[in-house]
């Protein structure tokens, strides 16, 4: 052994390495679950999951990307949640406003469960939302007034709930909307003339509600319309001649 060998130097090197490894592990652990995972766990708190479908949603994970119903994609150096599909999982409870934190969400399917309460108004924070399914639940209250802020929305399905209130005038901002299905609720008021702004609309399902007034002639401007459901409402007056312009109606 070299005469210059100093045991205390080796001891200090070992101590340094131990501290370095411990610090690295501590930082890794303290990072914990990312923000979208935390929003989802907060969302889960408002639910009753009697069959434990969401049993693998754990705070000890780094991301929610392996969780049941959660789909991610890569964006730069991070993974983001683009889809949440909880359809037909026998879930009940309320929809937590934390859902509004999933700002990258493009697909959301909560249909065929037993959710109650209102649609969170903060859902409009999910500005990239394209497909939004809420059908066959027990949701109440109005459709969010600012639903028109979801400029990428193509499909909105909320049939067979207990929704009330009127159809938001902001619906006219949804130029990409192809399907709007809210049959089987208790929506009242008139059909807003602004609906003519939905130039991509193919399916308009308003059956079995409490909608009154006259059918607006502006519906005749929806040239892509193929399906129009208005039965079992409180509509009055005549069918406007302008509907004849919807030459694709079946």
UniProtKB/TrEMBL annotation:
Keywords for the protein's UniProt record, in alphabetical order: ATP-binding, Cell membrane, Glycoprotein, Kinase, Leucine-rich repeat, Membrane, Nucleotide-binding, Phosphoprotein, Receptor, Repeat, Serine/threonine-protein kinase, Signal, Transferase, Transmembrane, Transmembrane helix
Its membrane topology: Single-pass type I membrane protein
One MF term in the entry's GO annotations: protein serine/threonine kinase activity
Domain of life: Eukaryota
Reactions catalysed according to its record: L-seryl-[protein] + ATP = O-phospho-L-seryl-[protein] + ADP + H(+); L-threonyl-[protein] + ATP = O-phospho-L-threonyl-[protein] + ADP + H(+)
Coiled coil: none
Location of the Leucine-rich repeat-containing N-terminal plant-type domain: 33-73
Pfam family, any one: LRRNT_2
Entry GO terms, CC: plasma membrane
The family this protein is said to belong to: Belongs to the RLP family.
Name of the molecule in the record: non-specific serine/threonine protein kinase
Species for this entry: Corchorus olitorius
Organism taxonomic ancestry: Eukaryota, Viridiplantae, Streptophyta, Embryophyta, Tracheophyta
């Amino acid at each position: 052994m070299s005469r210059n060998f100093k045991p205390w130097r080796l001891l200090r090197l070992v101590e340094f390495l131990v501290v370095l490894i411990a610090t690295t592990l501590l930082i890794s652990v303290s990072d914990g679950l990312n923000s979208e995972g935390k929003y989802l766990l907060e969302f889960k708190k408002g639910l009753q999951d009697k069959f434990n479908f969401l049993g693998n949603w754990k705070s000890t994970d780094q991301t929610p990307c392996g969780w049941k119903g959660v789909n991610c994609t890569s964006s730069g150096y991070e993974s983001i949640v683009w889809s949440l599909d909880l359809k037909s999982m026998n879930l009940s409870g309320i929809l937590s406003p934390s859902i509004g934190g999933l700002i990258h969400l493009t697909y959301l399917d909560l249909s065929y469960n037993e959710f109650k309460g209102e649609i969170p108004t903060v859902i409009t924070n999910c500005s990239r939302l394209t497909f939004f399914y809420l059908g066959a639940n027990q949701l109440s209250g109005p459709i969010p007034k600012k639903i028109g802020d979801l400029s990428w929305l193509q499909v909105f399905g909320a049939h067979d709930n207990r929704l009330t209130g009127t159809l938001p005038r902001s619906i006219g901002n949804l130029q990409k909307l192809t399907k709007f299905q809210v049959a089987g609720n208790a929506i009242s008021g008139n059909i807003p003339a602004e609906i003519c702004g939905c130039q991509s609309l193919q399916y308009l399902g308003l059956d079995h509600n409490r909608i009154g007034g006259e059918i607006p002639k502006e519906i005749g401007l929806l040239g892509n319309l193929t399906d129009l459901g208005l039965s079992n409402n409180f509509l009055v007056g005549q069918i406007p001649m302008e509907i004849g312009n919807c030459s694709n109606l079946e």
